[in-house]
């Protein structure tokens, strides 16, 4: 979908051969309010080249890929009031900058709750400057929040909880990748605290 100032309201996508709803090629100022997307062969909602949008009231569940996939030039969007449950990965992110996530709950992902990385084939495709407010990640099969590449830096979690994630709450491989404040963790494994700052600065 190529959009500019488009509104999508109260839509159900199910049993699609690809993603449920897919945005691409300069989707700008997109508003999505009320999307349920499930049983799709890839992602519940996949955004590419999407900027300055507001996507809220998302119920993305039982998709083979990610509940929410953000990949390639994702910048300046707000994602608000979403429940991502029983997906392969709850939230998949690459090449995503300066987005804000508010009141996101991720439940029972088969792999990681949040997976953040740089594209293998593209330089300068890291995830940086993303803010999570009131993030809840519960019962993931992998990490609650996994940062896969050193280039992904200056990401923040302000408020939230991680419960029962099989491989632990937070995983990072370098400094300045993720900072947290007011986040509770009660997983079997502890976060890799040597790489996680608890005093975020911007």
Question: Can you give keywords for this protein?
Answer:
single chain, 202 residues, mainly beta, Pectate Lyase C-like, 9-stranded parallel sheet, 7-stranded parallel sheet, 18 strands, globular
Helices and strands in order:
Layout: E1 7-14, E2 21-23, E3 27-28, E4 31-38, E5 45-47, E6 50-51, E7 54-61, E8 66-75, E9 78-85, E10 89-97, E11 100-107, E12 114-117, E13 131-138, E14 145-147, E15 155-163, E16 170-171, E17 178-186, E18 196-197
Parallel strand pairs: 1-4, 2-5, 3-6, 4-7, 5-8, 7-9, 8-10, 9-11, 10-12, 11-13, 12-14, 13-15, 14-16, 15-17, 17-18
Can you tell me about this structure?
The protein is mainly β and 202 residues long. The chain has one domain: Single-stranded right-handed beta-helix, Pectin lyase-like (Pectate Lyase C-like, 3 Solenoid). It has strands at residues 7-14, 21-23, 27-28, 31-38, 45-47, 50-51, 54-61, 66-75, 78-85, 89-97, 100-107, 114-117, 131-138, 145-147, 155-163, 170-171, 178-186, 196-197. A nine-stranded parallel beta sheet has the order 1-4-7-9-11-13-15-17-18, with no helix packed on it.
Second CATH tier, the architecture: 3 Solenoid
Spell the H/E element sequence.
Answer: EEEEEEEEEEEEEEEEEE
- The number of distinct β-strands equals 18
Q: Could you tell me the CATH topology label.
A: Pectate Lyase C-like
Strand percent estimate: over 45%
In whole angstroms, the N-to-C terminal distance is: 34 Å
Shape: globular
Q: What share of the residues lie within helices? A: under 10%
The unreliable regions are none
Task: Please compute the radius of gyration using only Cα atoms.
Answer: 15 Å
* Nearest-integer average pLDDT: 91
| Fourth-level CATH superfamily | Single-stranded right-handed beta-helix, Pectin lyase-like
Structural class: mainly beta
For the largest beta-sheet, the strand count, sense and barrel status come to:
9 strands, parallel
Query: How are the strands of the largest sheet arranged?
Result: 1-4-7-9-11-13-15-17-18
- Can you identify the CATH class? Mainly Beta
